[in-house]
Structure formats: structure tokens, C-alpha cells
């Protein structure tokens, strides 16, 4: 989910940079790029991912025997 939000933020940043516009308050294309990178980092860290514990409650899910 965070990766989708990051893609939208990257798109907004790209459009702002392409047009050369900035939003009042200091938001520019680079601000959106940095926000998108932060969202991707959270996504890679596993924040916001849904997981269901099944059976033994092992973090790997299934144990090989």
C-alpha cells in the first residue's frame, strides 16, 4: 500500500518539477521526491504490510520438515 502511495507522490513531484511550479509553504518537486523515498523505505522495512499468523505462529509461516 505504501508503494502505491509513493508512486502517486512521485508522480505529483514529477509533474510539479516538469511545470516548474511550487506549492506555497515551500513544497516543490524535490519535496515530493523525498517524501516518496521515505514511503518506499517504510514499505521495504515492512511497515503497513498485513500478515496473518497461522498455525505455529512462526514468522516464516510454514516450517519445513
Structure description:
By secondary structure, this protein is an all-alpha fold. The protein has a domain at 2-45. It contains 2 helices and no strands. The protein has helices at residues 2-19, 29-45. The longest helix has 18 residues, at 2-19.
Spell out the key features of this protein.
65 residues; mainly alpha
- The computed structural class is mainly alpha
- Principal-axis shape equals rod-shaped
Q: Average pLDDT, to the nearest integer?
A: 79
Gyration radius (Cα, Å) is 18 Å
- The share of residues in extended strands comes to under 5%
Main beta-sheet strand count, sense and barrel state: none
Number of helices: 2
Number of strands: 0
Order of helices and strands: HH
Uncertain spans: none
> Helical percent range?
40-55%
Terminal CA distance: 33 Å
What would you say about this model in short?
With 65 residues, the chain is mostly helical. It contains two helices and no strands. The chain is rod-shaped and about 60 Å long.
Amino acid at each position: 500500500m505504501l508503494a502505491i502511495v509513493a508512486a502517486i507522490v512521485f508522480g505529483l513531484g514529477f509533474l510539479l518539477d516538469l511545470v516548474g511550479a511550487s506549492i506555497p509553504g515551500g513544497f516543490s518537486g524535490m519535496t515530493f521526491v523525498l517524501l516518496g523515498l521515505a514511503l518506499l523505505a517504510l514499505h521495504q522495512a515492512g511497515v503497513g504490510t498485513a500478515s496473518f499468523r497461522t498455525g505455529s505462529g512462526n514468522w516464516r509461516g510454514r516450517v519445513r520438515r
